[in-house]
Amino acid sequence: MNIIYDNNGTLAQLIPAPKFLETLEGTLEEKLIHIANKDLPTGTAYEITSEDLSDRSFRNAWRYTAGDTERTSDDLSLDDQLKYNHISQEEFDNASV
Amino acid sequence: MATKKISALTELTTPAGTEELIVNAGGTSKKIQIDNLPSSLADNSVTLAKMAAGTDGNLITYDASGDPAYVTTGTSGQVLTSGGTGVAPTFQAAAGADTSLSNLSATGENKVCQAWVNFNGTGTVAIRDSHNCSSITDHSTGNWTVVYTNAIGANNCVNGYCKASAYLCQIDQPTTANTANVRAIHNDGTVMDVDYVSIIVFGD
Predict the structure, then answer these.
(1) What is the DSSP letter of B102?
(2) Chain B positions in Cβ-Cβ contact with residue A83 (cut-off 8 Å)
(3) What residues of A are in contact with residue B184 (Cβ under 8 Å)?
(4) CB within 8 Å of A2: residues ≥ 6 apart
(5) pLDDT at B156 over 60
(6) A9: closest chain B residue by CA
(7) Which residues does A65 contact at the CB level (< 8 Å), separation at least 6?
(8) FRET partner for B137 with CA separation of 20 to 30 A, picked from A49, A54, B13, B110?
(9) Is the pTM of this model over 0.80?
(10) CB contact under 8 A, A14 and B129
(11) Residue partners of A9: CB distance under 8 A and separation at least 6
């Protein structure tokens, strides 16, 4: 399964790295939600899909249309932001006070 | 020689050097002056059997006063660790060889590859293998973003390779701490999908 979202009018598909997935806990869907929160800008509307997107005909014309299972990416927790080097230890400490 | 009962002998507590000891040498009484007694043990003359018994596993060392002392037995797997000058060694847990990137010194980190990924950029876009890469995003034909698992110093160095020599792997500049934007450009100037794209990243 991949994550699809709109990127300036074109459909973008986010493909998770298998090795990174192995480091996460939970169901595949929970892992993909974590990746969306980590790798997409906060507030990005997206869907998790298992649709076959291997036919790349007219790839630049693909558009993202919101479906029933659309989600919105959240901020990572402070612990995860520190874990992924998104914030420094000092920023983490200040935010934790 | 006059005889005298042992019980009647006077105890000699501080023998003078000229006083004599009487010894029995094979049934013959002989005398030797205190000054002529051997003053030290001969080299290599103390056997293990002559040493005082101790605790198994203890080692002999010297304390801060220069006197013999024991290094107490550690626990299984511990190694003898020097305490430096003037301090007796002790048994301590062995330091493990930590080779993860996060524990390399800052000087060492920038000498090793911080992230790499090899992916198929056409058909079913997929990552074949990677290190410190959480995902790639397929934006359009021949246009992808690699996202690092752990952020790298923003002024990093990214290099990319495409399968065919007719393609240039273009990396957007300036580089960022979290991502690298990659395009495969044919030598005729068009952006094209390619099935083998490899990216390596060095930085702090």
Answers:
(1) G
(2) 150
(3) none
(4) A13, A14, A15, A16, A48, A49, A50, A53
(5) yes
(6) B139
(7) none
(8) B110
(9) no
(10) no
(11) A63
